[in-house]
Amino acid sequence: MSSKLSPRKNLKNWKLGHLAVAGLFALLATTLLAVALGTVYVPPLTILKSMAQALGLEVGQPADQTSQILIVLIRLPRVFAAIFAGAGLAIAGTAMQGLFRNPLAEPGILGVSAGASLGALIAIAFGTYSFLALPTFAFAGALAAVLIILALSSFSGSSGQTTVLILAGMAVAAFFSALTSLLLVMASEYQVSSYIFWTLGGLANRRWEHVQLMAVPVLLAGTLLFLRGRDLDILLLGDETARTLGVAAKKTRILTVLLASLLTAIIVSVTGPIGFVGLIVPHIMRLLVGPSHRRLLLASAFGGAIFLLLCDLATRLVAMPRGIELSVGVTTALVGAPYFMILLIRSLRTHA
Fold it and tell me: What pLDDT, on a 0 to 100 scale, did the predictor assign at position 129?
């Protein structure tokens, strides 16, 4: 029995630096695999040469122009979009689960996805199809949902209370969903089909501009939440204990909600809603590295990036023989839904 538990115990005892190095190596290997496989196989050495050329580094025998275009302009943007989207959703999910003390919490628990969906539908309904228009409208809708939720909790006199935040989120999500349904009734068949395709969540045709939109928020919000990891750990002990140890519970909750929600909003606005990444990855990482939020946030960032990369790779390989494009949100749901049901059953048995 002890030999079976020792790997997990050793992993929980790893230092942050060791976790970071292991995560980087795993992410690099997954990235090379995701770029290499597809309708045309690209050798890893060619990938590394193309990346070096793109960075302006001198290489011995440069990659041919066709491989350079395929790698740098087609596959790498999609891969990096998956990395930042997966990492960001997992970070947001980790923060929400810690804040609400519930392993079943996920990034869209406060109605962010509902707000983004309404914004995206408005862009589609008004025929705004320019490059960044749909992400901009979706982000505006998500941001509106977050601000309304925080305003409701503030006006109620219970700003920062988790119960109030959840109830406000449910109300705002229901209201935004009703507006979405109303617009769908009035939309054309083409607009409805475009909206439905967006709600599946996907990484197809993502460009470096999309990666840039996500990169800064993910790195910035992830770093700020990582620095607040100790405060999140203390917050689990209760408000009284937190105040005794010098942690402002109300401020920490609001800041965590704001960072996690904005992080989710920017990702959803670019990729559409991709479910279960922020739900199952933090839960699995918690079992592997323990509940300490700094370790957990770091592990979840790498775990989320690798998970979404593998799901997108599986999606592309399955769709490749038929020459069609599937949404990665379908794959994450197929993988995540059974795990969620198992997690739910275990949770109910534990509290029975």
Answer: 61
